[in-house]
Amino acid sequence: MDNELFELAQQLGQLLKSKEKKIATAESCTGGWIAQIITEVSGSSAWFDRGFVTYSNAAKMQMLGVKPETLDKFGAVSAQTATQMVNGALAHSDADCAIAVTGIAGPDGGTAEKPVGTVFIAWADKNKDVKVVQKKLMGNRHQIRRQTVKIALEGLEL
What we know:
Blueprint: H1 3-18, E1 23-27, H2 33-38, E2 48-53, H3 57-64, H4 68-74, H5 79-91, E3 97-103, E4 118-125, E5 131-136, H6 141-154
Parallel strand pairs: 1-2, 1-3
Antiparallel strand pairs: 3-4, 4-5
């Protein structure tokens, strides 16, 4: 197990529990890794509602309500898609807050405007606006995915 990520998940859990809030995740490039590390924490059922692994565009539309026009105009890897993913996770769960990630982990799939390592991470709370960041991460597929999980866990503000 990755001790650093586990400790971040524990800290997130303590914060959510103290505020009596639950979280949901919507993941593309991380393939459920955020949900997996959260559920490594004993007692996480008190603060983790559910996770959506929406790797395909069809899954993003069907499970999270991402609009086809958004995918056509901006692509799956975009701030707009991440925003709709995080809002969809809130709308389709009993969670108070959510994390969404979408990106290009590589080694293939990158373009000149969106090279491998481009990720968008969104956080939302039902009482606040959505926060989205774009990151240009370096490394191999595993390293990019791990960095995405770390940033996602660290970035939630309640």
